[in-house]
């Protein structure tokens, strides 16, 4: 399989509409890949909280339309990153996954909202449903940014059959070491591929780390981007997940339901 991770620059001086068009063109340029991935909240910026209300869209809004068309023009599975979704009176951080004919295969509302007592954590509703998507050669498990810190979410995705864990993010440069470490940890502990796509640039005063990364089920880094806008193109063998799990069957040694101390 070939995957293209589009580490787009979120520049506050570029309009959302212009970035949407540019993202569509970048996706089209990846025709020939099997799977194209965009990062978290790239239309507005993951930390541009003050713009969330104004830029919120219905699920099937302008980003949905642009990305559905880009997926079908390129003939690729497209993980279109996430949008600020408005559903009734509630905002969600929602990922869109399109099939190569431009149909929505899955959406995923971010479960772990970031910000503690501000930003997304207080402005957005929490997703409640895990998301997996069966592609012809692998099953994807979807996660968004801060979710990466919660291993139980990834283990639940693996239990549901996920073999390729796709993380879209807008991760701050200040915690870049956590980003690469956690991406490798989620790959090793679940014996799965991790495709983690982040944003470049600085918005709302928060420098983004970039460094999108692809890790194999053994924890080896297959490719890693730099800090700026970049497209990471990686070939990987989905069969390696089954081989790794068979040759080093640690997942079979799990002990569930541990008793608390008496
Ligand atoms: O966990 C982190 O350090 C970053 C999380 C984040 O920026 C987000 O979820 O938007």
From TrEMBL:
Gene3D superfamilies: Carbon-nitrogen hydrolase (3.60.110.10)
Keywords associated with the record: Hydrolase
Coiled coil regions in record: none
Entry's transmembrane regions: none
InterPro entries according to UniProt: C-N_Hydrolase (IPR003010), C-N_Hydrolase_sf (IPR036526), UPF0012_CS (IPR001110)
MF annotations from Gene Ontology: hydrolase activity
PROSITE patterns to which the protein is assigned, alphabetical: CN_HYDROLASE, UPF0012
Domain CN hydrolase residue range list: 1-238
Family statement drawn from the similarity comment of this UniProt entry: Belongs to the carbon-nitrogen hydrolase superfamily. NIT1/NIT2 family.
Name the record gives this protein: Carbon-nitrogen family hydrolase
Organism name: Streptomyces monticola
Lineage: Bacteria, Bacillati, Actinomycetota, Actinomycetes, Kitasatosporales
């Amino acid at each position: 399989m070939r995957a293209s991770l589009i580490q787009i620059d979120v520049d506050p001086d570029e309009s959302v509409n212009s970035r949407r068009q540019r993202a569509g063109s970048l996706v089209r340029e990846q025709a020939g890949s099997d799977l194209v991935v965009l990062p978290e909240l790239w239309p507005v910026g993951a930390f541009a909280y003050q713009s969330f209300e104004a830029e919120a869209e219905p699920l099937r809004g302008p980003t949905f339309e642009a990305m559905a068309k880009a997926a079908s023009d390129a003939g690729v599975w497209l993980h279109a990153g996430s949008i600020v979704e408005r559903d009734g009176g509630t905002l969600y951080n929602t990922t869109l996954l399109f099939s190569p004919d431009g149909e929505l295969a899955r959406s995923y509302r971010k479960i772990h909202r970031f910000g503690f007592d501000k930003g997304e954590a207080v402005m957005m509703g929490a997703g409640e449903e895990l998301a997996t998507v069966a592609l012809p050669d692998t099953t994807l498990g979807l996660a968004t940014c801060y979710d990466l810190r919660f291993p139980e979410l990834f283990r639940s995705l693996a239990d549901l059959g996920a073999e390729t864990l796709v993380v879209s993010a807008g991760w701050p440069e200040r915690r870049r070491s956590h980003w690469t470490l956690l991406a490798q940890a989620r790959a090793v502990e679940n014996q799965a591929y991790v495709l983690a796509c982040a944003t470049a640039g600085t918005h709302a005063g928060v420098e983004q780390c970039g460094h999108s990364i692809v890790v194999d089920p053994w924890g080896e880094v297959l490719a890693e981007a730099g800090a700026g806008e970049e497209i990471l193109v990686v070939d990987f063998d989905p069969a390696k997940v089954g081989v790794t799990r068979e040759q080093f069957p640690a997942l079979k040694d799990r002990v569930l339901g541990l008793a608390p101390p008496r």
